[in-house]
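Work package 3, deliverable 3.1, input record:
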Amino acid sequence: MKLYCLSGHPTLPCNVLKFKSTTIMLDCGLDMTSTLNFLPLPLVQSPRLSNLPGWSLKDGSAFLDKELKECSGHVFVDSVPEFCLPETELIDLSTVDVILISNYHCMMALPYITEHTGFTGTVYATEPTVQIGRLLMEELVNFIERVPKAQSASLWKNKDIQRLLPSPLKDAVEVSTWRRCYTMQEVNSALSKIQLVGYSQKIELFGAVQVTPLSSGYALGSSNWIIQSHYEKVSYVSGSSLLTTHPQPMDQASLKNSDVLILTGLTQIPTANPDGMVGEFCSNLALTVRNGGNVLVPCYPSGVIYDLLECLYQYIDSAGLSNIPFYFISPVANSSLEFSQIFAEWLCHNKQTKVYLPEPPFPHAELIQTNKLKHYPSLHGDFSSDFRQPCVVFTGHPSLRFGDVVHFMELWGKSSLNTVIFTEPDFSYLEALAPYQPLAMKCIYCPIDTRLNFIQVSKLLKEVQPLHVVCPEQYTQPPPAQSHRMDLMIDCQPPAMSYRRAEVLALPFKRRYEKIEIMPELADALVPMEIKPGISLATVSAVLHTKDNKHVLQPPPRPAQPSGGKKRKRASEDIPDCKVLKPLLSGSIPVEQFVQTLEKEIL
Amino acid sequence: MDPECSQLLPALCAVLADPRQPMVDDTCLEKLLDWFKTITEAGSSLLLLQENPCLVELLCHVLKPQDLSSRVLSFSLRLTGVFAAQEDCFQYLQQGELLPRLFGEAGPLGGAAWTAPTVRSGWIQGLRSLAQHPSALHFLADCGAVDTIFSLQGDSSLFVASAAGQLLVHILSLSMRGPAEGPPSLQADDWPPCAQKIVGHIEESLRSTATPQITQALNVLTTTFSHCHDPWTQVLWVQLHPLVAALLQKDPVPAAHSLVDLLLSVARSPGLSSSSCGLWETLAQTLSHLSPTQAGLLALGILKLQDCPQALRAQAFAVLLQPLACVLQATAQGPGPSGLLDSTAADSVTADMLLPSKAACVGLLCQTLAHLELLLPLPQRPCPWPQAPLLGAAVTLLQLCRGSGSPASDAGRQLCALLLGCVRVQRAALDFLGTLSQETGPPELVTQVFAVLLEYLRSPDSSPTVLKKAFQATFRWLLSSPRTPGCSDLDSHTLLFLRELLPVLQKRLCSPCWEVRDSGLEFLTQMTRRWGGQAGFRHALLASEVPRLTEQLLRDPESYVRASAVTAMGQLSSQGLCVPPAGPEHPGSQQKSLLGELLHILSTDSEGFPRRAVMQVFTQWLRDSHADVVGDTEQFVAGVLQVAGQDLDWEVRAQGLELALVFLEQMLGPPRSHCPYAVTPPVAAPAGPLTQALQSLCRVRLFEFAFRALFDCDRPVAQKSCDLLLLLRAKTASSSSLQEPRSSPDVASVEAALQRWRAGDQAQPLGDLEPEVVLAVLRSMDLEGLRGALAESSDHVEKSPQSLLQDMLATVGILGENEADCY
């Protein structure tokens, strides 16, 4: 059993598991932090961005000044943003049989895998995962395609040149493999390969293994996966949460008795408690708005935003913010808000019960009805006529490199009355803000990551007791900035095995048994003999028949009847090696009788 | 006993003796018993029994085998004890063999009723009352009660067990008080047999291997030494001391908690000269034998003792400091003493206690912090007081709980993992830190204190209770921060801190959690009250958004927050710290609107707390001659009284009277001082200003408000009003110019209206009153009588024994009727 690790990002995993004759890809997350090296794509012509000076080498040579621009001491690539793909060289991806997706954030690299590697298998995911994943991809494609960029920088990627660049460009990994965003066509083609599954549904793969998605409690339709054969069980835990937010609670019990538990997607900010952060978010939002400032919340169009809107729904009246407009701007804003209301079976119990009342599960419907929350596909069009300040704007992309958020950063960045509140933990807020410096607006970092923290993980591991734990190397030591925090790492016995990008792990686990079925007529013929109380033994003479990874013991062919010579010959050709088997002996030897017989025979 | 009660008593006794008529309400039985106690304390029990034979009949009756309720049986046992407390009555009951039958083997002791804890408790309490004279001792010895009491010490009911222990102590001290022939011998061998028996039992228990028995013995001794201070107790201690000391040789020490209690009670006992009995050695030995958690309590007790050897105090203090020393040791950046304890710096025992489990660690630290907090304000606290290391320890603990400390050692990291996010330790450490503000510390440590406090105030993870404690500790440290000599303003460091603090406060005032907003407002009020007049503070506050946010919180959905916002705004406004409105064309309009807004809250808010807060603010404004009030005081007072008079909340109405009183004093001068050395103002007030003052009081309709309040259905309001009117009458008594014949028609009509008010019909207003009429009405009213009536408790009419007996009979009567109805 082997694990091929194609991504080093702990929360955007992409691993391939070889288990009994099957090759299973676990998630295909797309690392978008590479986009932080690029200049933002402004929706409206930005004189500031277009007039940034070109960057030149120390010796004065300026041949890169078209590709690299300098802003407040940082250097950015002036080109269409590119993404860092999972490793494609480690294993032939065309041999992958299935891809299991655990949540919509972990499928963003899917088109690169399914469309460009010769992949011919099936992708399994739950319905909300596919629908919301499609929205995320659609938004991404839209953000990038609507700001066409004439030039594409590639000179800087030359290894010899990259060495001369300042950090962080110098240290960027595998820049040669970075790719531009996929197209909508590729997205559609990739999504057409997905087969929908429901929680606890058992899916047979070639008769060899069975895979089952389990609720993971993190997002709508998010799942952990059980991959098991008759005698082995591998659990794949990715992006799980024990907090009671909107999704169905995590199914922990089914993870018990695993031989191997692959653990990824823990919280990225283990020191920030989500409840405290939500409070912080609300306080800072109110403080800014009461001062007459605007609040910008860079976010994904689905996920935490539902919870934030719900908190605000309860908070705005008490904070006297009822007349402040909330804007949600995304090409998929409308679909996202509406989809969330129809996936009732995927919601937590509390919200499910609301389906039977004449009210929608999420209170954002009421915010929309009362005109407190308005949503727009883009800042062009209706929005520009409705726009009223002070206000709160939720919009993407959290990297601040593309999407409508770029415009609001340019618009509001100059005033210290305004605040940008970062809630998505995927991007370093300081790096995200780098191309907007100098910046007068206030920046608040309230990362809300509801995924498991280390305390919850240690409880979970105690509860489900896997034989072996496999996790990204980041989880096996405290974060570098807090080396004394021994509590910020996975602590289990035996110690967890760690992996890093482009590594192949042989999982410490040997298969010992295989299930074999006995045909009924063969079973009938068995004559068990009790050798100890409760234990009986019978000898079996049979033919082992193997097909589609299933093993069956069939009765041995009957000895051919001694009839005509020719026929006999034919029969022996048909079934080779089919001598009549003598019954095997078992049990203790009656010594005296044995000696007598020996004497008789030999003498 | 009055004849009415005597008449009712036989019927009641019959009811009590009748098992078919259960007493539902057993508080009646308690009241009845109390009543009998007062009667027997005042007179002869024997006489009482002779005059009311039904009582003895009742006592005899309960002995008959029947299904009597255990409550009545318990009551009878206790009642017997009350009667038998007097020796002649005891003899009388003895003659009738009643006592042995009730308390001896033949009584409930052997029967089924004994299974009820209330009967066992009644038996003990009966004996406790009875055991007052030597005859009782003989009786106890004869009926073998002492052995029963021994066994009841281990009773399953804690109340019974504890009462049994106390009864033993009582019997011991009674028997040692001895017969009339003089004080008992100081030789234990010559002690009365009963005392010897009890002491023997205690000795035997102390030698036992069963912890419960040891605990019982220790508890009996603890009670003995804390209640009896006669010379014989010293003999007792000398005799038992070796046995107690022997307990320390066991591992673990059994019944450690009780042992600590005993040693402390012996040490506190004035009857014992501690030095001669080896007490100090035992205490020192105990300190070193007990686990840190158990020893902490003993150490605190020792440090509280008035006279105690210095070495023992030092040892006790070291025990108390050990856990914190351990924390400092574990987190120290380099080697070297932590500064808290020099010799026992790294005590492995404490480290072992701290590190293995979270519960033990948290428990020990919280206990230590609480003990040190208790010790700090005491005059006998250890000297020199290790202020700096303690400050360091508190700061370190708070950092560890936040995960912001960076311990270098493994032990430190382990400690950090245990304490991370622990709210209990955070609360205890913040309380302790606040208490430490009574002393100063080295400047760099004080800087750290403020830094850690700011960290807590800032942290989104601080729970509301922790945050409240952090605000309190911050205020205490701000209070103690050094001031520039000769100037009461805050020093530059504090101002710098304030500039960092105010944005945090701003954010907290916007918190989604109402408790946080509330504690933020309370903190603001405290700060404004203290430093509102100082330039540095004013400047910083006005530069922030805090005043404006506070104003917005007047409309908070949570009533507690609104109330705190009202108080805070009142305070800000008093200090002139309300933000003027943006436009320059409305000078002072914000102030006006605040008054209007508060009046609006007073008249419309649905919750009582904000309205009460408004009344308090208004009273304070009137007292301080607030600018808004001074402009037209009469209109202000009239408006407020009118609204407050109609409030449904009695506290608002009472506060209205407080405001009326302030106004009255401003008009007529303060009440005459009762201090004999105070300069007494001239008795006769000049008539002219008095008339004007009274007219002013009439214009604001203060009298109508006060008269209404006089007949208020809530007693505190009526009492307050009565006091106010009495004060007014005293003020005006001497003025001759206002004497008016009380037969004026107006006076009559007002009195008639007041009569109707008193009867509950307050619809009709009094109309415009003239000062003369008011004074005449006041003089005619029996205010003193009313005050006396109001001072009585509300049930004074119903509290007579007669009414108790009637009630008890009536309850049963009603039960009987219902029974009849069923058929």
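DSSP finds 42 helices and no strands in chain B.
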